[in-house]
Amino acid sequence: MSSLFLRLLLFFLLSNFLSAQADTNITLGETLTPLTPPTSWLSPSGDFAFGFRPLESDPTQFLLAVFFNKVPNQTVVWTANGGKTTNYQSKAVFTQDGGLSLRDHAGNEIWNAGVNGAASAAMLDTGNLVLSSSSNSGTLWQTFDNPTDTILPGQTLNQGTSAYAKLTDDNYTQGRFMLKLQDDGNLVLVPRAYPSAFEYEAYWSTETSGSGINTLVFNSTGSLYLSYPNGSVSSVFSAPGLGYSGGGYYLRATVDTDGVFRLYAFPKNSLSTGRWGVKAFVPSDICESLFESRGSGACGFNSFCVLDADGRADCRCPPHYSFLDPDRIYKGCKADFISQSCDLGGETAFNFTEITNVDWPLADAEEFSPMGEADCTDNCLKDCFCSVAIYNNETCWKKKFPLSNGRGGSDVNRKAFIKFSTVSDPASLIKEKKEWKTPILVGSLVFGCSAVLVPLIAFVMHKRNMRALPRTSGAVIGPALCSFTYKELERATKGFNEEIGKGAFGTVYKGVLPSQPATHIAVKKLESLSQDAEKDFTNEVATIGLTYHKNLVRLLGFCKEGTHLLMVFELMSNGSLNRLLFRSDRPEWNQRVKIALGIAEGLAYLHDECRTQIIHCDIKPQNILLDDNFEARISDFGLAKLLRLDQTRTSTGIRGTIGYFAPEWFKNVAITAKVDVYSYGVMLLEIICCRRNFEWGPESQEKLTVIGWAKECYKNGRLDLLVAEDEEAKKDGTRLERLVMVAISCVQDEPWLRPSMKKVVQMLEGAISVSLPPNMCSILS
Question: Does the keyword Lipid biosynthesis feature in the UniProt annotation (predicted)?
Fold first, then answer.
């Protein structure tokens, strides 16, 4: 394509490569920005860069970082600003007074290197960013002296210095583990009580306490060792020399999010197809090593840890439990049922699921020996405090909440009996025992909004599958849409403490409704709205509240109180599609197809079946959430009007995300529902390939965008290349071809050539054939 859209898109995507400066010395006053050249400063060889790198989970957010410039996804090795991201309006400046500063859109400083007086700066081929004074005075500041989670060859760690694991794969702030060279000469790995800085006891060490002054050294051959003043060394990894001399590999040693310190190598001769390989790690078994009487252990509470081949902690939930937060699994697992009542018994409503080779050794309530297996489970069943029974060799252990330090593996010689509810609503048993005579419908309304009962009852009768809403002091706007006070939502989110997302509309926080602890919610604080939008807020919320579809995230309520504008949604337990698609273990092909169809059905509803048509304007994987059953739910629909977007004609107000823009956003033409069709087509290709629309790596330009790559593969009859290493998709060739053809038809430059979402659903289901647009031959030529 040669359209204005493609040219502008490639400008954004390639700026990270084409606009980097490879000057050996960086002079005073030089500036970096996320989108406008230059975006980074390169080392002389181009192996490393310092500058703005987009966050993989949200390309609208940027890290100021040092990263490997030539490897796929440009692995980060150091971050400024405590790992916190900034937006596209920020800039980094090597100031006139010789300091390094990060500034926001208003020019306010949000981070600095803590020194002034440097005469020059340089990004070195070692991966070290150095600020230097005059030639006689040497280095004033360098990233090697201020490590984050990674140590590079040539870098040393001195006594009293630490490296910190990041919190999660896409959250670069300091996490739960620390590598520390103590003043006594001992190198240790220490767990930390996030979010505080409280340190627990070390779970691994070199046992070199009392050895005096030493230094942790990482050399170019892959050896990482403690060096002593007398010239002796003590190896950190079991193999002191791993044979990486000769410069054929990139190397790094990283404190990973699971608390394991790993040595990685990447072959330089396989930049486009290679991957980071784990060559050594400590401790050898994180599940066993990270064992504390305080805290949850290697995984969160009520979960258990299984070791994989690379020494990673594979955290799992027991049957009938699910992760409290799939994006932060260290928070542990929650029961997917109501717990047993201690007041009213109810043991007949509970049973056990047996799993083998699993144990929670520190959660004992009682121990019985000798005891048979049947007596063990019966004893637990009758004990309302018992959540799990562990049995082995005529010994029975009753376990209580919360379960900690869970471990699984062939060497764990235990049977675990997981207690769970056998009925969908155990609370109904309690109601029967108390002889509650209130009709079920009225009883359910106890948890609902207190005002306008008649419309609510009528709505519940019509929508039998709708869950009852929690009690609130506010009114009802539209059917079953509650008005919350700001204090209620502040309490529900514990002071807006846990941020789970951020986007153009504002920040999203996780919460729990106080009146209904089992109901988890997502509270969106809207920002940057015009006065006109604030006036229309209630009307727009009411419109959104009238949209009900299995593939839409449900709006539960809102808050309009002074300057506070908030919306309350049901929380989707399995996070965003973005996180599911772009992880190392791709989801199954059939699951991806189901998700693609669900999104299409949700968009078709918004476009054609609502009382008022809703154009989303920002369809992307981050705005597709997944419920308990991994059913796709579209979020942020109907919010475009709150940003006062003119959906009939636009010349300045482009709405959307880089990579998903429809071409008409760049033209002074009408904006229709076809902008969503284009974005859906891009996302459908991402679902098919399990790769992002664009890659921030050194691949050939024709593969930078998934659109160009898909068209090339289709033209050459090589759709198998789109799903490399996905045998399930390759075997389903007919459906694969149909999905690719649907996607290509959706990403046509001209809106009139794109199908409607209703037609997309029919094509995906195979109800109608997929016909490519008449200009397809020229496009593929």
Answer: no
pLDDT in tens, 505-529: 688 999 988 667 767 899 999 875 6
Q: Rounded to a whole number, what is the largest CA-CA distance in the chain?
A: 89
Please say if the pLDDT value at position 35 is more than 60.
Answer: yes
Report the sign of the C-alpha dihedral through residues 644, 640, 611, 562, in that order.
negative
Distance in angstroms (rounded) separating the CA atoms of residues 677 and 667? 17
- Percent of the chain at pLDDT exceeding 90: 42
Q: How large is the average pLDDT for residues 349-377?
A: 91
Give the dihedral sign, CA 56/62/67/69.
positive
Q: Which domains does the chain have, with CATH numbers?
A: 1-146 (2.90.10.10), 292-432 (no CATH), 438-570 (3.30.200.20), 577-780 (1.10.510.10)
Least confident of 162-176, 369-383, 633-647: 633-647
Quickly count: other Cβ atoms within 10 Å of residue 589's Cβ: 21
Residue 162 has pLDDT above 90, yes or no: yes
Catalytic-labelled residue, pool 256, 359, 618, 726: 618
Residue 63 CA to residue 54 CA, distance in Å, equals 6
Both tokens of 308, joined, read 């994989």
Q: Calculate the average pLDDT of the chain.
A: 81
Of residues 157, 185, 189, the one with CA closest to residue 175:
189
Quickly list DSSP for 77-137: EEESGGG--B-TT-EEEE-TTS-EEEE-TTS-EEEE-S----SEEEE-TTS-EEEE-STTT
Among 155-159, 383-387, 770-774, name the one with the lowest average pLDDT: 770-774
The answer to whether 673 and 613 have CB atoms below 8 angstroms apart is yes
**Burial class of 377 by CB neighbour count within 10 A (0 to 12, 13 to 18, 19+):** buried
pLDDT at 344: 54
Does the annotation flag 730 for ligand binding?
no
Q: What is the DSSP string of 651-669?
A: SS---S-TTT--GGGGTTS
Cα angle, residue 594 at apex, residues 593 and 595 outer, rounded to 5°: 90
CA distance 535 to 65: 41
**Packed helices 733-746 and 589-604: angle between N→C axes, nearest 10 degrees:** 40
Which residue type, as a one-letter code, is found at position 632? A
Residue 329 has pLDDT above 80, yes or no: yes
DSSP for 314-357, please give it: EEEPPTTEEES-TT-GGG-EEESSPPPBTTTB-GGGEEEEEEES
- DSSP E strands in 662-752: the ranges are none
Q: What is the pLDDT of residues 108-128, one digit of tens each?
A: 899 999 999 999 999 999 999
325 is catalytic: no
Q: At 621, which amino acid appears?
A: P
Q: Using the predicted structure, report yes or no on whether residue 468 has a pLDDT greater than 70.
A: no
Is residue 407 packed enough to be buried (19+ CB in 10 Å), middle (13-18) or exposed (0-12)? buried
* The predicted structure's pLDDT at residue 324: 83
DSSP 407-470: EESTT---EEEEEEESSS-THHHHHHHTT--S-HHHHHHTTS-SS-HHHHHHHHHH-TTPPPPP
- Residue 392 sits at φ, ψ, to 5 deg, of -165, 125
Q: Is residue 8's pLDDT more than 50?
A: no
Write the single-letter amino acid at 3. S
Phi-psi group of 72: left, alpha or beta (phi > 0 → left; psi -120 to 50 → alpha; rest → beta): beta
Q: Quote the CA–CA distance of 180 and 205 in Å, as a whole number.
A: 9
**Encoded tokens for 181:** 């060279």
- CB-based contacts of 78: which residues, under 8 Å, 6+ apart? 65, 66, 127, 129, 143, 146, 147, 148, 150
**Cβ distance 148 to 75 under 8 Å?**
no
Round to whole Å and give the CA distance between 290 and 191. 8
| Residue for token pair 């600003």 | 81
**Rounded average pLDDT over 770-775:** 67
